[in-house]
Amino acid sequence: MYIVLYTFKIKENHKDDFIKAWKGLTKLIYKHEGSLGSRLHKKDALTYIAYAQWPDKTTFDNAGKNLPQEAEHFRCLMKASCEKVDIIEKLDVIEDLLK
Asked: What's the whole-model pTM score?
């Protein structure tokens, strides 16, 4: 498995739009791009961290080509609700004991 960690710095008073965009886009990526899903975590009032899981690096690297038009709505909403989005780590899973 392959893991990608993201950090999101959201704009003041945009939490609900951000979460809506993150959930919508994540569901589409799962359905159309082969993702194994993601978890969203809150670090502080304006900083969120997401943990996305993929079967392998190749699937992650090739993602984005199969998304439906609906994804553009969520991308625009996320862009409007965030000051900054960064990938902070890309990791290979060695052992997995999550249940």
From this structure: 0.92
